[in-house]
Amino acid sequence: MLSPRKPRFEWARRARDLFPLTAAGVLAAAACSLAYVHYGRGRLDHVLLTVGIIGLALVGLVTALVILSALLVWRAARRAPVGDPLRAECGHLTPTGFRLPSLRWVPFVDIRWSWASPRAEVVPVREGRHLVEQIRPAERHHFAGVARRIEVGEVFGFARIAFRVRQARPGRFAPWIGGLEQVQVAHGLSGGDDLSHPDGTPTGDFFDMRRYGAGDPIRFILWKVFAKTRDLMVRTPEKAISPDRRTVAYLVAGEGDEPAAGAARVAVDTGALGTSWVLGADGCSEAASSADEALDVLAKSAGAAPDDSGALGAFLTRLNRGAGTRAVVFVPARPGPWMQRVTAAAVGPSGHYPRVEFIVCTDGIGASDSRSAWARLAAAAPPSDGLIAARQEDLVAVVNALSATGANVLVVDRPGGRLVNGRALRGVIS
After folding, report:
1. Where are the beta strands (DSSP E) in 155-268?
2. Is 100 in contact with 152 (CB distance < 8 Å)?
3. What pLDDT digit, counting tens, does each position of 49-89 carry?
4. Which domains does the chain possess?
5. Residue 171, number of CB atoms within 10 A of its CB
6. How far is Cα of residue 364 from the mean position of the Cα atoms in its chain?
7. Contact 145, 168 (CB under 8 A)
8. CA atoms of 57 and 169, how far apart (whole Å)
9. Which residues are bridge partners to 280 per DSSP?
């Protein structure tokens, strides 16, 4: 999310954007005026007189062209059609239908713009006499309007005018799924067939079996079946009756939660949550039970306030369906205020909360950072792709805190599409 500017500096920034001359333009105009007035006319230096006249004429010409072009572009931007609600995915180029005149017939003029809110990279494409907008969102978001900052300048750098144009166009940025498309991030959360072993109990006995999936406990592997068929199979509980089972999923919002949102989206899109599921998230009062509603919930969670982070306990209490209910919780790989609330919800009284399984999501695992605070402050900016790997100590702290509740913990790497059990974390980061 973009940090808002302080109101006391807003007027100064807008005044600076509307002033047509840049610092280079002011210096050029001052130098040319000095050459024209002091040396050209005062001392009759014809060379500097000519230089001053040409320089002032050039600065005045490009300034007039920029002002004229800015008026034309502002008029076109104000008249641009709103269009349908915008749907885009983070990390992918999406055309928005917004276009501005390229003004190729105006010499020296250059037009560029950016999204002030929400945050997205603008990649314009020239089509005939227009510049057609394409965007690449940086983070998930749910918004009611778009604010663009349009800048009209010229190639010499003497003049420039910038202004903002707001468009009442709602939209949604879905989280990037990375390499998780082929990974069952919530494998085993959905129930089995309705027909089961006749000796089974309604609470579910391990009579059924299925193929082994990443994250399944080793103790449930059928080693005799593996010895005969060379296929890894695991025991799974199956109901002796067909009760109304529901999988509840939840996204914990916090610093570095974009990978968790991407994993939650994959779980919904691939049907890993089963046929009857509910998805909630921090900052969202309503739960989702369809794919489109789930994307809205994930996008809205980006605006969750710090006080809303980790509101898992209230969500599980509201949607608890008894001992058979399963819950999967997607959490970021960075510690935060949410950890205490989430772990407290996972160790609730027996039978009060459903069984909770955690999926810790990250964009890679970085090396431990032993540098001083000054060294980290002076370090280079993160890469332009927006992916920041979780530090080893942060990931270990999150996994240890969640594992202490007795819940099953999986670690998911979004760019690489890898999934590993939390107990094997040391083998992954070594």
Report:
1. 160-167, 171-174, 205-211, 233-238, 247-251
2. no
3. 898 999 999 999 999 999 999 999 999 999 999 889 999 99
4. 7-174 (no CATH), 178-188+245-429 (3.40.50), 192-244 (no CATH)
5. 23
6. 15
7. yes
8. 42
9. 250
In 252-407 the beta strands, taken as DSSP E runs, fall at 277-281, 326-332, 355-362, 365-366, 390-391
| pLDDT-based confidence at residue 367 (cuts at 50, 70, 90) | low
Tokens standing for 296? 């809205």
Report d(CA 3, CA 392) in Å as an integer.
28
Cis peptide bond N-terminal to 383, omega within 30: no
Tokens, residue 55: 């320089």
Taking the C-alpha atoms of residue 354 and residue 318, their distance in angstroms, rounded to an integer, is 11
* Contact between residue 419 and residue 183 where contact means Cβ atoms under 8 Å apart: yes
Q: Alpha carbon 313 to chain centroid distance?
A: 25
Please give the Cα distance from 128 to 141 (Å, whole number). Answer: 32
**DSSP annotation string for 47-96:** HHHHHHHHHHHHHHHHHHHHHHHHHHHHHHHHT----SPEEEETTS-EEE
The pTM is what? 0.74
